[in-house]
Amino acid sequence: MPAQFETFLCLSDNIGVLMHDPATGATAAIDVPDAAAALAAAGRRGWTISDILITHEHVDHVQGVAELKEKTGARVTGPMQARASAPVDSIIEDGAQVKVGDLVGEVRATPGHAAGHVIYHFPKENAAFVGDVLFVMGCGRVNGSVDEMWRSVTAVGALPDDTRLWVGHDYTLSNAKFALSVEPDNEDVQKRFMRAETMKANGELWGTTNVGMEKLTNPFLRLKQPAVRKSTQLTEAATPREVFAALREMKNRF
Ligand SMILES: [Zn+2]
Fold first, then answer.
1. Domains along the chain?
2. How many angstroms separate the alpha carbon of residue 56 from the centre of ligand 1?
């Protein structure tokens, strides 16, 4: 039986998500910005949270973990760096396997936004939880090195095209504006920009996407496109890593 998902808003722009295994009843919360919001989402679906998977140590992703663990008894899995601010039962590293009921996920270290950042990829479910590495049409801020972030973003882009992605924040409209400024003639970006405006106007959350759509519209996954490179004013000799660094700087000032 395929996994089921529930996506919901936490705080002002964090994306909350639950993944449910219908075969066993296991349910994972991926990050806990707000324990009450996670419990309400589980209640709407009649699910009981059994697991918490942490993508990274930033406070807006872990601040509800202790409360949610206390109220549900959920087992907490996350990187070592999260232990300073959350009760992590099981520390994971690159290449580790995680299980939510019968659902099997692979952990990949993806530093750059946070030293301990990991993503969780569930290949059989065509699903990945990418935290603050990749956003819809954008990517996370660099707090480590640009090289690390470039590799981490590229690793998400290397997952199969039909992989569904849950991202850490709904920054979609702001990212769409930036993507359009980089590639004004990209029709896929134009369409998604209009959709982002409509969804924002309707108060709808946009925190999910897939790898294929990001490869068509996310400038940080389009580093070899001549139009993207030109927007950075780098020469044709520029490497994808150099284009990435320039784009990230442009977005910081956008
Ligand atoms: Zn973060």
1. 4-128 (3.60.15.10)
2. 7
For residues 126 and 109, is the Cβ–Cβ distance under 8 A?
no
Q: What is the DSSP letter of 142?
A: P
Cα within 13 Å of Cα(103), Cβ side: 28
Q: What percent of the chain has pLDDT over 90?
A: 99
142 alpha carbon to ligand 1 midpoint, in Å? 10
**What is the C-alpha to C-alpha distance for residues 10 and 28, in angstroms, rounded to an integer?**
16
| pLDDT number for residue 180 | 98
Cα(58) to centroid of ligand 1, in Å? 5
Evaluate whether 33 touches 132 at the Cβ level (below 8 Å).
no
Query: Could you give phi then psi for residue 222, rounded to 5 degrees?
Result: -125, 40
Rounded to the nearest angstrom, the distance between the alpha carbon of 5 and the centre of ligand 1 is 22
Q: pLDDT-derived band of residue 221, with 50, 70 and 90 as boundaries?
A: very high
Maximal CA-CA distance, the chain = 56
From 159, 101, 98, select the one nearest 134 (Cα to Cα): 159
Residue 88 CB neighbour total at 10 angstroms: 23
Q: How far is the CA of 187 from the centre of ligand 1 (A)?
A: 30
> Could you tell me the distance, in angstroms and rounded to a whole number, from the CA of residue 132 to the centre of ligand 1?
5
Question: For residue 147, what is the enclosing H or E element?
Answer: helix 146-157
Confidence of residue 1 (pLDDT cuts 50, 70, 90): confident
Cα(45)–Cα(219) distance, rounded to whole angstroms?
A: 36
